[in-house]
């Protein structure tokens, strides 16, 4: 889909747009408690934002690095953690999610990381598999939603 762009959220307005998308998708649609959705990792994460040509936010995701990522990926220092990937209902199926994942992978490469790890809701496994991620480990609940760990090496 043309008509949208993806960028690292550097301004406070961009970050607020990221949080608004997450509120709509995770809290509003999926019933995740707001106190679980926002965490201490948000302060240092690399947030990415997809926006329509007219500035309307379409999706977001974040990359954790260093100790924050190691907590999520089993301790690997050279593996980033992709998380909080959310696309607004109106923008689903338009390629926004894949573009956000590519932007997060690019940010990980720029930081010298060897791979990206994520915890996928089980209904989204096929989406991530098409982008080169492989499942490992057992299913586990996160905010009451079944998840699986996945990883993709970066070239």
Query: If strands are numbered along the chain, what order do they take across the biggest sheet?
Result: 1-2-3-4-5-7-6
**Structural classification:** alpha+beta
What is the string of helix and strand elements?
Answer: EHHEEHEHEHEE
Strand residue content: 25-35%
Low-confidence stretches: none
Number of H- or I-type helical stretches:
5
Count of DSSP strands = 7
Give the termini separation. Answer: 25 Å
Shape: globular
CA radius of gyration: 14 Å
Mean pLDDT level: 94
Q: How would you characterize the largest beta sheet? A: 7 strands, mixed
Helix content: 25-40%
Walkthrough of the structure:
This protein has 155 residues and is of the alpha+beta class. It has 5 helices and 7 strands; from the N terminus they run E-H-H-E-E-H-E-H-E-H-E-E. It has a 7-stranded mixed beta sheet, with helices on both faces. A hairpin with a 4-residue loop joins strand 2 and strand 3. The longest helix is centred in the N-terminal third of the chain and has 18 residues. The two termini are 25 Å apart. The model has no long low-confidence stretch (mean pLDDT 94).
